């Protein structure tokens, strides 16, 4: 193993003039190696890196385009929803106004029908009162007539004798006979 390390160490001591060899000075060879590696990477990796960046760029552009389309669709749907909301609000206002006017109309109809019913009830009450008054008057008349008749019968019974009774009957028969002659 010592021979292998010795050979590398001995390579570091070779002369520079016209020969090829390894530089074992790490500080001096690092920038050179890095620049060579970067040069090789740039030369050979440039196409791959460009392809990766182009693919990434296309995905980002597609995502932006899709987002713009979705945004446009969302704006269109929002406008449709706003139009629909406006129509619904207008219809609701119309229903509200027509509902209020219908309520007012029904209220007036109810008030008018109530007044008519009250008038009918008032008329019925007045007719009932008038009918009851007439009935009461007729009952009073009948009682007065019955009492007068009763009084007249009692007076006649107490004052009427059989002779007066016979004279009244013959006078009535004579009157009846004369009426019949006029009719014939």
UniProtKB/TrEMBL annotation:
<comment type="function">
    <text>F(1)F(0) ATP synthase produces ATP from ADP in the presence of a proton or sodium gradient. F-type ATPases consist of two structural domains, F(1) containing the extramembraneous catalytic core and F(0) containing the membrane proton channel, linked together by a central stalk and a peripheral stalk. During catalysis, ATP synthesis in the catalytic domain of F(1) is coupled via a rotary mechanism of the central stalk subunits to proton translocation.</text>
</comment>
<keyword id="KW-0066">ATP synthesis</keyword>
<keyword id="KW-0150">Chloroplast</keyword>
<dbReference type="GO" id="GO:0045259">
    <property type="term" value="C:proton-transporting ATP synthase complex"/>
</dbReference>
<dbReference type="GO" id="GO:0009535">
    <property type="term" value="C:chloroplast thylakoid membrane"/>
</dbReference>
<comment type="function">
    <text>Component of the F(0) channel, it forms part of the peripheral stalk, linking F(1) to F(0).</text>
</comment>
<keyword id="KW-0406">Ion transport</keyword>
<dbReference type="GO" id="GO:0046933">
    <property type="term" value="F:proton-transporting ATP synthase activity, rotational mechanism"/>
</dbReference>
<keyword id="KW-0793">Thylakoid</keyword>
<keyword id="KW-0375">Hydrogen ion transport</keyword>
<comment type="similarity">
    <text>Belongs to the ATPase B chain family.</text>
</comment>
<comment type="subunit">
    <text>F-type ATPases have 2 components, F(1) - the catalytic core - and F(0) - the membrane proton channel. F(1) has five subunits: alpha(3), beta(3), gamma(1), delta(1), epsilon(1). F(0) has four main subunits: a(1), b(1), b'(1) and c(10-14). The alpha and beta chains form an alternating ring which encloses part of the gamma chain. F(1) is attached to F(0) by a central stalk formed by the gamma and epsilon chains, while a peripheral stalk is formed by the delta, b and b' chains.</text>
</comment>
<protein>
    <recommendedName>
        <fullName>ATP synthase subunit b, chloroplastic</fullName>
    </recommendedName>
</protein>
<keyword id="KW-1133">Transmembrane helix</keyword>
<feature type="transmembrane region" description="Helical">
    <location>
        <begin position="32"/>
        <end position="49"/>
    </location>
</feature>
<keyword id="KW-0934">Plastid</keyword>
<keyword id="KW-0138">CF(0)</keyword>
<dbReference type="Pfam" id="PF00430">
    <property type="entry name" value="ATP-synt_B"/>
</dbReference>
<dbReference type="InterPro" id="IPR002146">
    <property type="entry name" value="ATP_synth_b/b'su_bac/chlpt"/>
</dbReference>
<keyword id="KW-0812">Transmembrane</keyword>
<keyword id="KW-0472">Membrane</keyword>
<keyword id="KW-0813">Transport</keyword>
């Amino acid at each position: 193993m010592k021979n292998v390390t010795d050979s590398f160490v001995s390579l570091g001591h070779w002369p520079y003039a016209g020969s090829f060899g390894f530089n074992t000075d790490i500080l001096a060879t690092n920038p050179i190696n890095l620049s060579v590696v970067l040069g090789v990477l740039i030369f050979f990796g440039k196409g791959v890196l460009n392809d990766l960046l182009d693919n990434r760029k296309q995905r980002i552009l597609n995502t932006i385009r899709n987002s713009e389309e979705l945004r446009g669709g969302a704006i269109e749907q929002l406008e449709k929803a706003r139009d629909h909301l406006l129509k619904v609000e207008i219809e609701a206002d119309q229903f509200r106004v027509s509902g209020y006017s219908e309520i007012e109309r029904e209220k007036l109809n109810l008030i008018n029908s109530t007044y008519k019913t009250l008038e009918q009830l008032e008329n019925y009450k007045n007719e009932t009162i008038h009918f009851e008054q007439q009935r009461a008057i007729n009952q009073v008349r009948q009682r007065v007539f019955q009492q007068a008749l009763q009084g007249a019968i009692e007076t006649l019974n107490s004052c009427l004798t059989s002779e007066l009774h016979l004279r009244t009957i013959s006078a009535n028969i004579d009157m009846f006979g004369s009426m019949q002659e006029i009719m014939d």
